Amino acid sequence: MISGKSIICFSSNDWTDIPSSKFHIMKHVGQSNLVLYVETIGLRRPQFVSKDVRRALTKLRKTCHWVKNVENKIFTWSPPAIPYHGLAIVEWLNARILSMMIKRIVRRLAMKDPIIWAYMPNAIEIIERIPSSKVIYHCIDDYAEFTDVPKAAFEKMERKMLERADITIVSAKKLYENKRPYARNIIYIPHGVNLTEFQGYLKETLNIKDIDGIKSPIAGFIGRIADWVDLPLIKRCARELPNWNFVLVGPSNVDLKSYLGIPNVHFLGKKDYKDIPHYIQRFDVCLMPFVSNALVASVNPLKMYEYLALGKPIVTVPMDEVADFAYLLTIAGPSNFSKGIEKAYEEDTEVKRVMRIESVSGRSWGDVAEKILGLVG
């Protein structure tokens, strides 16, 4: 294990958000290295609506708490950024103020020759003002394709990030194809899963009444419910398979009102990470019902690895990043997704369950983290 490094991570998620690749990687890195985890500086421009106001107030409260030691050698900080990307004066203010604050934190934590590990291209102006030994750009999404994000501004910032970074890591082959012409040095490293830890959570008995009261067979989804999840497809499958129950576990960024009255569709909300395996364990079939767009085409779905880690049958829409696991999955387009669910359920066997688990046995987050750190020395 590489140790003794100082790392400043610019994340696209807060530490308490749904555990993502940044969380898992930094959690491993923070066991033996000093980590400053800078929470998201935002992607889209906020509007004067209740959801954005609540988010802004939450951000302000977290900022007032300054630096927090969350575990081991990991410290989190929520920056008071103004997320109006593409506006020169705002970018200058963010870069000037946040870089000064981060330098102060670096001195306070006695960080030496920090490695900057950035997940967000809109941190580039801040990064330019912070002394560092190396800069890693870890690209896991095509950020310019997110809804309500200023596309041209993000493309410009990412081009600059790719040119600045000593190494760019991409999690999807499509990202490699798109970013390679502009990157100084680029390598493809897909996501992982902490197999032993994930399976270990099942050793504890957990009474989860919200799903234990739902009859099988259950087709389930774990993750953020956003506009990249094809809810109309779920609705149609629920109508075509009235004897099945469809369970979606995770916070929602979209309006669910038109789906709440469907008797065999259940939204259970966000759960603690350690409870997620218990929900997946209760699924008869796991779902990856994504829409077809440029954003999804560039995603390496973390949930696929978590589903496989528990040996569950998976039904997914066609995606480039599932090709290596196609022999373990049921791939079905929207028109025959319901049939895919029935097929995956009926053809599941113990032999297949073992094969699914074995397919991710050598893909730990620790291995991913150490491989990336090894590349920058």
- CA-based gyration radius: 21 Å
CATH architecture of the largest domain: 3-Layer(aba) Sandwich
In the residues, how many domains can be counted? 2
Instruction: Report the average pLDDT across residues.
Output: 92
Main sheet record: 8 strands, mixed
Uncertain segments are none
- Report the helical percentage: 25-40%
Order of helices and strands: EHEHEEHEHEHEHEHHEHEEHEHHEEHHH
Q: Kindly report the name of the CATH homologous superfamily of the largest domain.
A: Glycogen Phosphorylase B
Would you tell me the structural class of the helices and strands?
A: alpha/beta
CATH class group of the largest domain: Alpha Beta
**What share of residues are in beta strands?**
15-25%
Number of strands: 14
- Total helix count? 15
Distance from N terminus to C terminus (CA atoms, Å) equals 12 Å
CATH level-3 fold name of the largest domain = Rossmann fold
Which outline best applies?
Answer: globular
Strand order of the largest sheet: 3-4-2-1-5-6-7-8
Protein architecture, described:
With 377 residues, this protein is an alpha/beta fold. The chain folds into 2 domains: 6-192 and 364-376, Rossmann fold (3-Layer(aba) Sandwich), CATH 3.40.50; 195-359, Glycogen Phosphorylase B (Rossmann fold), CATH 3.40.50. 37% of the residues lie in helices and 16% in strands. An 8-stranded mixed sheet has the order 3-4-2-1-5-6-7-8, with helices on both faces. A 6-stranded parallel sheet has the order 11-10-9-12-13-14, sandwiched between helices. Strand 6, helix 5 and strand 7 (167-170) form a beta-alpha-beta unit. The longest helix is centred in the N-terminal third of the chain and has 21 residues, at 88-108. It starts with 5 loop residues before the first strand and ends with a helix.
